[in-house]
Design brief:
seven-stranded mixed beta sheet, 10 helices
Amino acid sequence: MAQVAGIKIAEFGGPEKMSFTRWETPTPGEGEILVRHEAIGVNFIDTYHRTGLYAVPLPSGIGLEAAGTVEAVGPGVSSPAVGDRVAYCSGPIGAYAEAHVIKADRCVTLPDWLASETIAASMLKGLTSQYLIRQIHRCGPDDTVLFHAGAGGVGQIAVQWLKHLGSTVIATAGGAEKCAIARALGADHVIDYRSEKVAPRVREITGGKGVRVVYDGVGKDTWLESLDSLQTRGLMVSFGNASGPVTGVDVGILAAKGSLFLTRPTLVHYTATRESLQGAADDYFAALKSGAVKIADPTVYALKDAVQAHTDLQGRKTTGSLILKP
C-alpha cells in the first residue's frame, strides 16, 4: 500500500514534539478529495495546535493551508476534478504532509499563472483581507480607514489593496522598522503606537472627523483607541485578538461614542459555500494578477525540516511568510 510522509504530534510541547513519519495514503470519502501537495503554508496558529494552546485530539497531524493537485476524488464530487490545481486554508488539520484529504467544498481552483508557493504563503491572509475590505465594507476612494498592525501578515496585503481601491489608509505599527514597511506598502499615514497615542493622531490627520472604518486584529490593547478613532456612525471591525480578547463590554459605549457600529466577524462565515469561497479567492487572485497586491517570496523549508521552521518562527528569526516543500 502506498504511503505518504509528513509531520505528526503525539503530545503537546515545543517544536521537538513534531516527528517526520510515514503512514498509509488516505482515501477520500463522500464529498472529499485527496490533494497531492506542492507547497504548504506555515501559520502561527500551527504553533498553538502544537503546544496545546488550541488543543486538538492526539495523536494529530498539523497545518491548515496548502496548495497542490487533486489526485483522487470521493463519491459525490463533481468539482474539482482529478488533475486540477487547488488550494485550501481552513483545514482539516494535517496539511504538513505530502498529501491530505479535505472536503471538496473547502478548496479553491487555482489559475495556471499563480504559483503554488505564492498562494500557500498567502491564501489565509489574502482571503482575510478580502472579506474585511471587500465584503464587510466595500472600501473605495471615499473612505479613510485605520488598519492596525499594517506591517503584519494581513496588514501588508490589506494596505496594498486599500491603496489600489483608492482609500486613504492610516496604519499603525510598532517601531521604526515596521512603520517603514507599512509606509513602503503605500500607507498614507503611519502611527507608531509605541511613541504616539493612536486616537489623537487619527483626529489630527482627519481634521477632527475620525475614520469611516477601523480594522482591529489586536483586540484588548487597542479597543478604546479604535472606538475613539471613529467618526459618528463609523464601523468598528474587530477581527482578531493578538493582545487578548475584548471582554466586559457595555454596549452603551457605542452610543456614547457616536452611534457606532461593531462587528466581530470570522472568515468561515463569509466563505460558507464553495461559491462564496471561490468568489472571494478569485477577487484576491485578480488583485495579485494586476500587481495591486504583491507577495514577497516566502522562506522555504523542506517538509522534513518543519521542526526548524517552527523554531525559527517562534524565535523571530524569519520575516514574511514561511512554507514547507514536500
